[in-house]
């Protein structure tokens, strides 16, 4: 009991102490800025735009020996998973695709000439949405998502960043295998 009271009293003291409140706001702002940078990529690895651009159309559906996926499959998987996590984070009525088949495209090749560009645009659009969500000071990064099972916006944003980094790394390796990678 004393510990609980002490924590409550400490929280009240922090709320009533302007210096502590200011420090809390500074830390909150810094966390949000770090999350946006992490979600944007390009710090520990190449910029996602560079990774996803300039891949010749004829190589987007090629699976070199030893590679588990084509560039198209990786791009679509990244798009679908990011979209799903973002939608789950905001919409209690969202229904996720069947796992794992719903997270991968049916074909190794893009279905049309403009499919690649549309998928890249969707990845960028959803990335901007998650950055906006975590940047908003009204978004409680630590509160459990009401319709979830303990997930928070912070956890979902970190999941997107981690998942994207993993598959963007695969994309770089695949492009190297295809001879279609130029260092930025």
Alpha carbon gap, first and last residue: 57 Å
As for the number of domains, it is 1
Q: How would you sum up the major sheet?
A: none
Can you identify the CATH superfamily? dinb family like domain
Strand content: under 5%
* DSSP helix fraction: 55-70%
- Provide the succession of SSEs: HHHHHH
What CATH calls the topology is Four Helix Bundle (Hemerythrin (Met), subunit A)
Unreliable stretches? 4-8
The number of helical segments is 6
| Whole-angstrom Rg | 20 Å
> What overall geometry do the principal axes of the alpha carbons give?
globular
Topology record:
Layout: H1 2-16, H2 18-40, H3 48-52, H4 71-90, H5 115-135, H6 153-178
Structural commentary:
The chain is an all-alpha fold and 184 residues long. The chain has a single domain, classed as dinb family like domain (Four Helix Bundle (Hemerythrin (Met), subunit A)). It has 6 helices and no strands. Helix 2 (18-40) packs antiparallel against helix 5 (115-135).
């Amino acid at each position: 009991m004393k510990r609980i009271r002490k924590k409550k009293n400490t929280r009240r003291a922090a709320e009533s102490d302007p210096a502590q409140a200011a420090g809390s706001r500074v830390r909150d702002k810094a966390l949000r800025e770090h999350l946006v940078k992490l979600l944007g990529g390009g710090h520990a690895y190449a910029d996602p735009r560079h990774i996803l651009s300039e891949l010749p159309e004829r190589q987007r559906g090629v699976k070199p020996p030893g590679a588990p996926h084509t560039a198209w499959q990786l791009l679509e998987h990244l798009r679908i998973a990011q979209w799903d996590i973002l939608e789950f984070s905001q919409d209690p009525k969202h229904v996720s695709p069947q796992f794992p088949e719903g997270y991968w495209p049916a074909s190794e090749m893009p279905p049309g000439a403009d499919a690649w560009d549309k998928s890249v645009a969707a990845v960028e659009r959803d990335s901007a949405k998650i950055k906006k969500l975590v940047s908003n000071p009204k978004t409680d990064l630590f509160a459990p998502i009401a319709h979830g099972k303990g997930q928070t916006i912070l956890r979902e944003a970190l999941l997107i960043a981690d998942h994207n980094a993993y598959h963007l790394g695969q994309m770089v390796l695949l492009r190297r295998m295809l001879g279609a990678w130029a260092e930025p």
